[in-house]
Specification:
This protein is an alpha+beta fold. The chain contains 14 helices and 12 strands. Among the domains are: 60 residues, no CATH class; 107 residues, Ubiquitin-like (UB roll) (Roll).
């Protein structure tokens, strides 16, 4: 495995009223394998009115930042489940650098090939597991990693797998609670549907997407499938308005523990004409809107053990959880209040400064489906 160790030097960029500084000083364990990946973003903006720079002026002047985000990868080790082993000798694990901005069905054919001599491989039965939790393939890989691992991928210094995301591969007993992906067309359709949703939020219609000819549509998909930056962005850039005034809303998804995301209609500007920042966004969202996904945070990993509890224990748990919800509800009024208590968040593996422009983050840190995913970390892992 080729590992690059160079870091991006601090760069200062100035465009009219905008000044952007970024560096790659420190990475989470999942991103410290030689990535040209921005690890800290400080952005100061004086945009007070709708007369600030256009999206094109303030973002496309620097492809390096955009490409650094695109090139972000996560080191993964795939190990075949003992329950799927059909040979006498267990196969060796398989490791690869997985693009953050991709989906597991697009990168796991090589994993199937590696294990096919040791198990019965059924194309539509393959699924992945992390710490007992089935992986949802329709969520981007980077979002999955940030949500399930966050900053807690810690192993012993003597562990040869230190820093890797360790996933278990299954080829039978497909879980009922996650979608199947029988072929490439399935993930392609899913991606297009989410892309349409994001563009409708941004512009109020999907005209730009519908206006693509067959060659452009194929170029976009091939760029995503083969992780080709030039191909993908030659088409994807068409989906971004030329001016902030052309935005209806910013497509945002707030996700925790890979539960169904919370979506909010976030305007580019507030009522005073100021460009929306992360802090403004977090203050805009009432805590009760995200309370449901934060409650019972360990339900996925502990579901089996909970089923073995007797009725009295379950009743006691329900009472305590109800009390906890009331306590949390009285303590936090907005999502910002919750985060300000010490809870961390991640966007593309890092924690951008609260003063960062949300529309800028959407373009640079957004995923291929054009959504900006904000991952909330578990309070106990902060």
């Amino acid at each position: 495995m080729s590992i690059l160790n160079s870091l991006i030097s601090i760069v200062s960029l100035n465009s009219q009223k905008h000044s952007i500084a970024y560096s790659s000083a420190s990475f989470s364990n999942g991103d410290n394998f030689g990535l040209n990946h921005v690890s800290k973003l400080n952005k100061q903006t004086n945009t007070q009115t709708h007369n600030g720079p256009t999206i094109t002026e303030m973002s496309f002047f620097d492809e390096e930042i955009k490409k650094s985000i695109w090139d972000g990868k996560i080191p993964i080790i795939f190990t075949l489940s003992p329950n799927d082993l059909t040979s006498h000798i267990p196969p060796s694990p398989y490791s690869l650098m997985a693009p953050r901005n991709s989906y597991f069905p697009l990168i796991t054919n090589v994993v199937k090939e590696h294990f096919k001599s040791s198990t019965l491989v059924l194309a539509d039965e393959m699924w992945l597991e992390y710490n007992g939790v089935p992986i949802k393939w329709h969520i981007p890989i980077g979002v999955l990693y940030d949500s399930l691992v966050g900053g807690n991928n810690k192993t012993s210094e003597d562990d040869p797998n230190q820093g890797y995301w360790n996933l278990v591969v299954h080829f039978q007993s497909y879980p009922d609670k996650i979608l199947k992906c029988p072929n490439e067309e399935y993930i392609k359709t899913h991606y297009k549907n989410v892309l349409k949703e994001a563009n409708y939020i941004k512009q109020g219609d999907i005209t730009k997407l519908n206006n693509l000819n067959i060659n452009q549509t194929n170029e976009l998909w091939d760029g995503l499938k083969y992780h080709d930056y030039d191909k993908f962005w030659s088409i994807n850039k068409k989906f971004y308005p030329n001016s902030t005034k052309e935005y209806k809303y910013i497509p945002i998804r707030i996700i925790y523990n890979c539960k169904p995301p919370v979506q909010e209609l976030i305007p580019v500007f507030d009522e005073n004409g100021e460009e929306t920042t992360l802090q403004m966004l977090f203050n805009f969202i009432p805590f009760q809107n995200v309370e449901n996904i934060l409650g019972n945070s360990n339900s996925s990993s502990n579901s089996n053990s909970n089923n073995n509890d007797d009725n009295d224990d379950n009743n006691n748990n329900n009472v305590s959880k109800s009390d906890q919800v009331k306590e949390i509800d009285s303590k936090f009024k907005t999502l910002f209040d919750y985060l300000n208590s010490g809870v961390k968040y991640k966007i593309q593996g890092i924690e951008p400064d609260l003063s960062s422009s949300v529309v800028w983050l959407n373009e640079f840190f957004g995923y291929p489906d054009n959504f900006l995913y904000i991952v909330l970390l578990d309070p106990i892992s902060k």
